[in-house]
Amino acid sequence: TALYDNYLADLNADGAADDFGGGARLGYYFSITGGGIGKVVHTFEGDLATVDVRTGATPLYLGHLGNTQFFGVDALAYSPAGDLFYYTSPYGLESQLTRARVRFAADNQPLVETTVIDQSELSGLWPSLVFRGDGKLFRAEHHSIVEVDPANGDTTPVAEFADLSDWAITALTFDHNGAAYATLASMLGAAPFRLIRIEADFSAWSELDVLPYDDVASLAVIDGLLYGFRETGHYFTFNLMTQQLVVQGEVSHAPVD
């Protein structure tokens, strides 16, 4: 099978190139086939597909998220129960927190069932949404982090880093010990993103690296490696032990013959 550049990917097989201009957003996904943890990527319009982080290929289309025709998908997270939660991109308006469940029909066509949980006005330019290993859901905006109740969308502040007031969190993830990792974008102008580690109790943060990128959209920790995914579809790894950054490739689409 031929691999296509991600800007020419047609994940939903509708004959039109998918728009990755909103960035590749990835998160944990518990395999439908059972066993192991894979990855899911979504386009700005809300099309879902699995991603093989070893090759960047997207071998399985999972369907289309609902209520995205006007706003697009701006943050995506996966619960330990296998549900997907996401915000629609607000553009200054109220954004919808939605739960999605993916299943397959008898003909193996993906079916996505969505339920709107809450509507709220998000203040951040790059809201991040992620589940911690204990099942708690967190959202990052600007330089603060809140816990989100997935049942009703209610939020509880857990951290605000005043010394990062000129920076905005663009991506957030957790390791198995509960420590958080985030990328920071300057609010004062173009600058390389900073990569930081946040203590599990949110009491303090420390800088790990200044990245050679200014477009990191999502993070995930897998087997001791921190994966970073850029808005271009390219991704890299950062070894949390050696602090070595390695460019891996780009998210692409391998059509099924």
Summary, kept brief:
The chain has about 260 residues and is mostly beta strands.
Core attributes:
single chain; 257 residues; 4-stranded antiparallel sheet; disordered C terminus
The succession of helices and strands, N to C, reads EEEEEEEEEEEEEEEEEEEE
Determine the fraction of residues in helical runs and give it as a percent range.
under 10%
Structural class by secondary-structure content: mainly beta
Strand content: over 45%
Physical arrangement of strands within the biggest beta sheet: 1-2-3-4
**What is the chains' assembly state?**
single chain
What is the number of helical segments per DSSP (H or I, 4+ residues)?
0
Can you offer a commentary on this structure?
- The chain has 257 residues and is mostly beta strands.
- Helix content is 0%, strand content 49%.
- The protein has no helices and 20 strands.
- The N terminus and C terminus are likely disordered.
What topology emerges from the helices and strands here?
Layout: E1 25-30, E2 37-42, E3 47-51, E4 61-64, E5 73-78, E6 84-88, E7 94-104, E8 110-121, E9 128-131, E10 137-141, E11 144-148, E12 155-160, E13 167-174, E14 180-186, E15 194-198, E16 205-210, E17 216-222, E18 225-230, E19 234-239, E20 245-250
